Automatic annotation (TrEMBL):
This is Aminopeptidase N. It catalyses: Release of an N-terminal amino acid, Xaa-|-Yaa- from a peptide, amide or arylamide. Xaa is preferably Ala, but may be most amino acids including Pro (slow action). When a terminal hydrophobic residue is followed by a prolyl residue, the two may be released as an intact Xaa-Pro dipeptide. It is an enzyme of class 3 (hydrolase). Keywords: Hydrolase, Metal-binding, Metalloprotease, Protease, Signal, Zinc. Residues 310-455 form the Peptidase M1 membrane alanine aminopeptidase domain. Residues 1-24 form the signal peptide. SUPFAM superfamilies: Leukotriene A4 hydrolase N-terminal domain, Metalloproteases ('zincins'), catalytic domain. It comes from Streptomyces capoamus. It holds the Pfam family Peptidase_M1_N. InterPro entries: Aminopeptidase_N-like_N (IPR045357), Aminopeptidase_N-like_N_sf (IPR042097), Peptidase_M1 (IPR001930), Peptidase_M1_aminopeptidases (IPR050344), Peptidase_M1_dom (IPR014782), Peptidase_M4/M1_CTD_sf (IPR027268).
Length: 495
C-alpha cells in the first residue's frame, strides 16, 4: 500500500477552500432601486422589511431631528451590500449588532456594507443612528418635509420617508411600525395607529405610537406642533383621534366641521367596503401652506386650504376611502394608481348620491359630457398614466368613469359585491390593475377585458354606451350640485 504524502502548504490551501462557502461567488450588492418603471431608484433590492422601530427627538425651534431607526428584515438574495433610502446625516450603522461600513450614493441612497456578507433567507437587524435638519435636505429639486410655525410635518406622495427615517421606500414592501418621538413639553407629536403611552422628563414629552398592521412607507406620517386633539368612538366601535393646529385662523371652523365627521364617514364607508381594517381612524390639520390631502394610514393629513371655502366632507370621504383602497390593499407598482384614486373618487360620487346632490350616474354623465373628444383629458390612461400624469385629474375622473362603466356592465348586485370583496381578497397586501380585473371577472362571471381596455388604457374618448342616452344625443348635461366640492379635490395630491 502506498501512502500519499500531502505538503503542509497544500493542506492549508485545502482548508481555506473548505472554509469558503460554495455560493460565495453569488454574493452581490442589492439593487439601488426595487424595479418600479415610474421611479427606478425608489425602494431597494435584496431584502424585505417586516418592522420599523423609530426612536426620535425633534426640536421645533431649529427643525433638528435626531433618531435611531431599527429595521427588522429578511434577505431575498445573497447580499454583499444593500441600500436604504435616506437623506439625513448618518453617524453609525450596525447590522446584526456589528458595525457596518456605509456611504451615500446618488440623491437619496445610503449604501450599507455589513462586515459579513448576508446569505439569502437571513433575518437581519439594521440599526441606523442619524441627525439633521430635514427642511435643509432636498432630492430631485424638492423637499417632502414641511415646516410649520410650531414644528414640522412629513406627509407626501410618492415619497416622504427619506426626510425622517431610513427605509425600503416602495409600496410593495409593507411593514408594521413603532414610532417614539420626544418633543419639548407643550408640543405634541402625532403619527399613525394608536397612542400607546406618553411620558415627561426634563422638559421633554415622549409620545409612543404603534401601527400594528402592515403599512407602506409613504403612508407613514409624523407631525409635530401645538394641536387641539379630540378623541371619540364611532357608532361602529372605531376609535377616532383628530388634531387641529391651534393657529388655523379662519379655516379652523370649516376644518373641524369636516374632519369631526370622520367616525360617521368610516361607518358609512364600511357599508360599501367592509369592516374598517385598522385599530384607529382620524385626521390632522396642521398649519401648512400645501394644498393637498393625503391618506396617511389611520391618520389622514389635510391641508388647511382644503377648507378655505367652507366645510367639505367630500374630501374626507375621499381620504377615508383610501384606507381600504390604497392602504389596506396597496398598489403593486406606481402604475396601478387607478385602484387608489379612481375608487376614492368614486366614493365621493356615492357620498353625493347619499346626500341627494347628484347620483353617481349623473356625475358620470357630467364628466363625460364636459370633455370633448379632442380634450387632452382623454389621452391620459388611468390604468398606466405614466409618472408625469400619475395625479392628473383624468386618473381621478376618468378613473371613476371606468368604475361606473363597470357598474353598468355587471349590474349593481355584482358591482357592490366586487366593491366590498376586493379589500378582503388582498387584505394588508398589494395588488395590480390586472389583479382587479381578474377579481371583477370572477365575481361577475363576465369577460371584462374590452371594458377595461377601453376605459383605462385607450388614449381616446370611449363611445357613449356607458352613459345615458341624453349624452349621446348631445343634450346639455346639468352640473350636479356636489360637483364643486368634488372638483375642489381634483388637486388633492397635486404637488
Amino acid at each position: 500500500m502506498h501512502r500519499r504524502i500531502i505538503a503542509p502548504g497544500a493542506l492549508a490551501a485545502a482548508s481555506l477552500l473548505l472554509a469558503i462557502p460554495a455560493s460565495a461567488a453569488s454574493y452581490a450588492p442589492g439593487a439601488p432601486g426595487i424595479g418600479d418603471p415610474y421611479y427606478p431608484s425608489y425602494g431597494n433590492g435584496g431584502y424585505d422589511v417586516s418592522h420599523y422601530d423609530l426612536r426620535l427627538q425633534y426640536q421645533p425651534k431649529t427643525d433638528e431631528l435626531q433618531g435611531t431607526t431599527t429595521i427588522l428584515a429578511k434577505t431575498t438574495q445573497d447580499l454583499s451590500s444593500f441600500d436604504l433610502d435616506f437623506l439625513l446625516d448618518v453617524s453609525e450603522v450596525r447590522v446584526n449588532g456589528t458595525k457596518a461600513a456605509f456611504t451615500t450614493s446618488d440623491q437619496h441612497e445610503l449604501v450599507v456594507t455589513p462586515k459579513t456578507p448576508l446569505a439569502k433567507g437571513t433575518t437581519v437587524t439594521i440599526v441606523v443612528r442619524y441627525s439633521g435638519v430635514p427642511s435643509a435636505k432636498s432630492a430631485y429639486g424638492f423637499t417632502a418635509w414641511h415646516r410649520t410655525p410650531d414644528g414640522g410635518v412629513a406627509a407626501d406622495e410618492p415619497e416622504a420617508a427619506w426626510w425622517w427615517f431610513p427605509s425600503n421606500d416602495h409600496p410593495s414592501d409593507k411593514a408594521t411600525y413603532d414610532v417614539s418621538v420626544a418633543v419639548p413639553d407643550g408640543t405634541q407629536a402625532l403619527s399613525n395607529g394608536t397612542l400607546q403611552s406618553t411620558s415627561s422628563k426634563l422638559g421633554w414629552t415622549r409620545y409612543n405610537w404603534r401601527q400594528n398592521k402592515p403599512q407602506t412607507t409613504y403612508l407613514a406620517t409624523l407631525a409635530v406642533g401645538k394641536f387641539d386633539i379630540t378623541t371619540g368612538t364611532s357608532d361602529g366601535g372605531v376609535p377616532v383621534l383628530n388634531a387641529y393646529s391651534k393657529d388655523l385662523g379662519d379655516n379652523d371652523g370649516a376644518a373641524r366641521a369636516s374632519v369631526e365627521r370622520t367616525g360617521e364617514l368610516v361607518d358609512w364607508l364600511s357599508g360599501y367596503f367592509g369592516p374598517y381594517p385598522f385599530s384607529s381612524a382620524g385626521g390632522y390639520v396642521p398649519n401648512t401652506t400645501t394644498g393637498y390631502a393625503l391618506e396617511t394610514q389611520t391618520r389622514v393629513y389635510y391641508s388647511p386650504r382644503q377648507f378655505a371655502n367652507g366645510a367639505n366632507t367630500s374630501v374626507v370621504v375621499h381620504e377615508l376611502a383610501h384606507q381600504w383602497y390604497g392602504d389596506y390593499v396597496s398598489l403593486k407598482g406606481w402604475k396601478d394608481i387607478w385602484i387608489n384614486e379612481g375608487f376614492a373618487r368614486y366614493a365621493q360620487w356615492l357620498w353625493s348620491e347619499h346626500e341627494g346632490e347628484g347620483t353617481a350616474q349623473e356625475l358620470a354623465d357630467y364628466v363625460y359630457a364636459a370633455h370633448p373628444a379632442d380634450d387632452p383629458f382623454w389621452t391620459v390612461k388611468p390604468g398606466d398614466p405614466g409618472p408625469d400624469e400619475q395625479f392628473s385629474a383624468a386618473v381621478y375622473d376618468r378613473g371613476a368613469l371606468a368604475i361606473q362603466a363597470l357598474r353598468n356592465k355587471v349590474g349593481d348586485d355584482a358591482f357592490f359585491a366586487i366593491l366590498k370583496g376586493w379589500p378582503k381578497e388582498h387584505a394588508y397586501g398589494n395588488a395590480s390593475v390586472a389583479d382587479f380585473q381578474k377579481f371583477a371577472e370572477q365575481v361577475s362571471g363576465k369577460p371584462l377585458s374590452a371594458l377595461f381596455d377601453t376605459w383605462l388604457f385607450q388614449p381616446s374618448k370611449p363611445a357613449a354606451p356607458a352613459v345615458r342616452a341624453l349624452v349621446k344625443t348631445g343634450t346639455a348635461v346639468e352640473r350636479p350640485k356636489s360637483w364643486k366640492k368634488i372638483e375642489a379635490t381634483n388637486d388633492v395630491h397635486g404637488h
